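Dear support,

I submitted the protein below through the web form. The confirmation email said the job was done, but the results page showed an empty box. After a refresh the structure appeared. I'm attaching both so you can tell me whether what I see now is the final result or a partial one.
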Amino acid sequence: TRTRNTDTTRYGHGDTRERGIMEIVFFYNIPISMHWKGLWALFGYHGDVIDAFIPSKRCRNGKRFGFVRFSNERDALRAIVRLNGFFLLGKRIGVKMASYNGRRPF
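What the results page shows now:
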C-alpha cells in the first residue's frame, strides 16, 4: 500500500524494511519548478522507484538536490548511466550513487 508523507517533497511505498545503500541515487542541480512527481516519472522510466525525496534545503553551492531509491542496484546504475548530464528544463543534472557517511540519506 502506498503512503504519502505530509511533506510534499517525498513519496514512497511506506515499506520500512532495511534496504541496501547501493540502491539509493543522489541527484543535484534540479530546476526549482521540478516536483517529486516529475522526478519519480523521469527516474521511473529507467527502473522500479521505491521512494523519492527532495529536501527543502540546498547543497553548499546553492543547488537543489534529492534522492531516489530503486528496488535493485541494476536499475539504479541504469538511471545513473542514462541521466547523469541529462538536460532537464534547461539545467544539466548530476546523478550518482549516494555516499554513505554513517546515516541514511532518508
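Response: this is the final, complete result; the empty box was a page-load delay. The two ends are 19 Å apart (CA to CA).
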